[in-house]
Design brief:
337 residues
Length: 337
């Protein structure tokens, strides 16, 4: 779309933002669903922790600011969106005030990232989304507008099936292997090689002392998946355990939402980009809930936040709008490549 066609940005541009534990993504589109640009920033979770408010502020300024620049729109302190929706890990606590000081919109809402992920995954239809990235949560909505959220209470008390959870499980087993409590399975060497340390104690000390962030530790999940794909049965069992925990959460959500007929289930987040995790999850889902239909997400969580921004402005999510969004998303992706 020719940027000169945007005559009145205040009434014609819409913003969706997905703020997570590893990065923040902003997407800007016109009222017909044509994506104008995307911008990216750092982590924007735990705004109440030391330094969290400034981290959140920087993530929003960077992601939204970059998207505005790419779209040849006014800077963030001048732009006014018709509608903006922020889906944030951990919800709106401590974030709404900060975001409201930075972004101006005729309608501005800040909420949890799960509804954005669901709206993107199902293109606004009822169903359940399983988010398994650095953390994990299961969220669903039915045709009556009732909602159910299972898990998502953080890395210490919840988040089974997430990247952080898997990384910690394998590191725990590596420690047991190191101490001679279990039979060797190559876990200690896998951990030491990935984190480039001489002893696992170096890794645990760095984490406890704050020298290693959670997303860095969670990134070990990829190496764990690769080892599982190569035949490590110990890690395979852990992945299957995590998939089973997520499936049980879907069962709980479906009971709360009284799903009896066929309904959509989508998987979002880095863990579902691992073939083994997805395969285990789909197998268990079909066995436990035969009426559940697993689908790949139609749109990502940032696009889902954009769809919620349209809804806030009372714009129907017509198939024409969704096709415009789909087409322009692919075009922007191709240009970036």
């Amino acid at each position: 779309m020719n940027q000169s066609e945007i005559r009145n940005p205040k009434s014609e541009i819409f913003l969706g933002v997905d703020g997570g534990q590893s990065h923040t993504e902003a997407v800007i589109a016109d009222e017909k669903g044509n994506i104008l640009s995307r911008g990216f920033g750092g982590a924007s979770n735990h705004a109440e922790s030391p330094g969290g408010r400034e981290r959140l502020r920087n993530a929003i300024l960077t992601s939204v600011g970059e998207a505005l620049i790419k779209a040849n729109l006014p800077p963030i302190d001048e732009a006014v969106f018709a509608s903006a929706h922020f889906g944030m890990t951990g919800g709106a606590d401590y974030k709404e005030e900060i975001i409201g000081e930075i972004v101006r919109a005729e309608t501005l809402r800040v909420g949890h990232d799960a509804p954005s992920a669901l709206c993107g995954a199902t293109a606004g239809k009822p169903g359940i989304v399983v988010i398994a990235g650095t953390g994990s949560v299961v969220y669903g909505e039915n045709t009556s507008g009732e909602t159910a959220r299972i898990g998502g209470l953080g890395y210490l008390f919840s988040d089974e099936g997430s990247g952080f959870w898997l990384a910690v499980q394998i590191i725990r087993l590596a420690i047991k292997e190191q101490d001679g409590l279990i039979e060797p399975a190559g876990l200690e060497r896998l951990v030491l090689n990935f984190f480039e340390c001489e002893k696992i104690r170096n890794l645990t000390d760095d984490f406890y002392n704050g020298k290693m962030k959670r997303d860095r530790l969670a990134s070990f999940a990829r190496a764990a998946h690769e080892a599982a794909q190569a035949g490590n049965t110990v890690i395979q069992n852990q992945i299957k355990f995590g998939a089973d925990a997520l499936t049980e959460s879907v069962c709980a959500a479906s009971r709360r939402l009284k799903f009896q007929d066929e309904f959509l289930v989508a998987g979002a987040g880095g863990m579902f980009r691992a073939p083994m995790m997805k395969s285990y999850f789909v197998e268990l889902l079909q066995a436990k809930i035969p009426v559940a239909i697993f689908r790949e997400p139609r749109f990502n969580p940032a696009d889902g936040a954009l769809l919620l921004a349209f809804r806030q402005a009372e714009i129907d999510l017509t198939e024409d709008l969704l096709l415009n969004l789909e087409r322009s998303a692919k075009q922007k992706s191709a240009k970036q490549e």
